[in-house]
Each structure stands twice: as structure tokens, then as C-alpha cells.
Amino acid sequence: MTILVTGSAGHLGEALMRTLRAESRWVRGIDIKPSAFTDMVGSISDRAFVGQAMSGISHVIHAATLHKPHVATHGNYDFLDTNIAGTLNLLEEAVVAGVASFVFTSTTSTFGAALTPAAGEPAAWVTEDVLPVAKNIYGVTKLAAEGLCELFARKSGLSVAILRTSRFFPENDDDPDIRNGYSAENAQANELLHRRVDISDVVGAHLLALEKAPAIGFGRYIISATTPFSASDLAAIRRDAPHVVERLLPGAGALYASRGWKMFPSLDRVYVNERARRELGWQPRYDFRFVLDCLRDNKEWRSPLALNVGSKGYHDEVFAEGPYPVG
């Protein structure tokens, strides 16, 4: 059984390759960039290259993509070529190769404008049933790629799982208010309350999806750390998130104060992972409760895999105004 991993030089691709190699699994990494985790260099928009890369493959994890940080530096057609045409090439060649399962890495960014409630409204409770309202070419092309995956599951009998992952990158936030008001570690710990997931848990979800897809046929899942909140907390976390956190997790404020950290005053959304936990058997470890336990014991709260993969950036150049230009 050989697994094809696309985007093997990226954050998730490297994490997948590290994990699969450590487990002595047969795996082939492809990327447009050479790396220690890339076995074949080429573009997924090149159908001939994809055909060669698919030879002998039984399972596919499609993590390669142009991301939100590329919106200001790449044209619309670049996104169409990579995110849509590249996905189509992979799907078509996967059918030809008769692969057993195809896992597509999507993003919670597909929800777009649906994630931002009006002023005074409760925070959004985001499940797979929320209707996406794409905000940029990244969201549009990822949604289109999801549609292609669903089409191939229906028409070609390809077993497909779509994983809409929340934030797992270690780079500083592109929002200057967050970047200037919180350390990266503080901000990312906060996000585990509602919109972040550790890359180790993301890898675990992908490998479970790879295994479960043939029995499921087609599924779409939000992959984000388990939140301590419930739907009944949505109005309160929009008004005063620290108060709700302290009510649910007594002592959290003191642990934060000991580190010189602070909570976000308000939260506008909560990603709900219940379907992935139920249908995939996924059990994410690195959630906000884990952060508090680590702060209490003065231990590192990020996974060893996250630390090993580290920060990669999305561009070859450095931008003065932030980690990447915002389009």
C-alpha cells in the first residue's frame, strides 16, 4: 500500500511525510519545491506529471494548495490552475489508478463571510452544515475543489473525505492588532479555544480519514481542536470571553497571568469538530485544556511534531508589514 502525499514541502505535507516515514509506511511525496520530504518534483497542474506520480499508488492525501497568504502575490489563474485544475488532475488519475481512498485537505476559510456575525449577535457555531460564503479567490477555488471531490465520489465511486482544517500554521497573525497585542504563542493558545488545531492532530485526522473513507464513501469534516464551549455560551463569549473561560475552566486566568498572557476579550466563532470525532473516531489531544495543564506543569504545550516542522512561511521574500501581504 503506497500513499501519495501532495504538497510534501509544506507545513502539513512535511508533517504527514515525517509521520508516515516514522511508521515505515510506503509513501511518496510530491511538490513543486524540492525538499527532504519530496520524492518527485513537479506541479499538480501538469497532468502528465500527476499520472507518473500516481503509478503504484493506492491512497492519496491531497494537501498541496495555494493558500490565503498567496492571494496578494498570485493571480486568480494561479489559484485556478493549482487548486482546481490540479485537484481535477489528481482525481482523474486516482480513478485510473483505482485508489482505495482520496483525502482532500480543505480549509475552514471556505466558510468566509458566514464566520462573521453582525455586531451584537452571538458568536457563530460553525458546523459542516453552515452554508459557505467565500470571501476571496482562495475560498472560491477550495470550494470548487471540494465540489469536484464530491462529484467524483458520486459519479466514479471514488471514496473521498474532505477535511476542513482550522489554523495550524505557527507564523504570526496577519492581523496587526493581534500581532501587536499578543505574542504568537499567547494568540495561538487562545485560538485553541475556538479556531486552531495542532498539526499533530491534523495528521491524525488525515490518517484516520484515509482508513475510514472506503466505508464512508463521501464525508466532509471540520478539523479543529475540541472547544470547551457549548452552543449556549455563544452570546456570552461574544461579550466577555475571559469570564466564560474562567467559569468553565476555573484557574485559567491565574495560569495566564503567571505567564504574562491574556485572553481575547471576545470570540466571533467556534468551530465544532463533533462529526469528525464521531464518524472518524478522531480524538484530538492538543486542545485548550491541554494548554492549561502544560502551563500548570511548566511544560511545552505544542506537539513535538509541530516544533519539528516549525515555521516555513509562504513566500521566498520577507514583508515589512507582516508575515504576508493581505489581499
Characteristic terms for this protein:
42% helix; single chain; two-stranded parallel ribbon; alpha/beta; 13% strand; globular; 327 residues; Rossmann fold; 12 helices
Protein described:
The longest helix is centred in the first third of the chain and has 22 residues. This protein has a seven-stranded parallel sheet with strand order 3-2-1-4-5-7-8, sandwiched between helices. The chain contains twelve helices and nine strands. It is α/β, with parallel strands linked by helices and 327 residues long. Strand 1, helix 1 and strand 2 form a beta-alpha-beta unit. Helix 1 packs across helix 7 and helix 3 runs parallel beside helix 4. It has a single domain, classed as 3-Layer(aba) Sandwich (Rossmann fold).
Cα separation of the termini: 41 Å
Bin the strand percentage: 5-15%
CATH class: Alpha Beta
Instruction: Give the name of the CATH architecture.
Output: 3-Layer(aba) Sandwich
Give me a quick take on this structure:
With about 325 residues, this protein is an alpha/beta fold. The chain has a single domain, classed as Rossmann fold (3-Layer(aba) Sandwich), CATH 3.40.50.720.
Topology (elements, then pairings):
Blueprint: E1 2-6, H1 11-22, E2 26-31, E3 40-41, H2 47-53, E4 59-62, H3 76-97, E5 101-107, E6 124-126, H4 137-155, E7 160-165, H5 176-181, H6 184-191, H7 199-216, E8 218-223, H8 234-248, H9 252-259, E9 269-271, H10 274-280, H11 288-297, H12 304-309
Helix pairs in contact: 1-7, 3-4
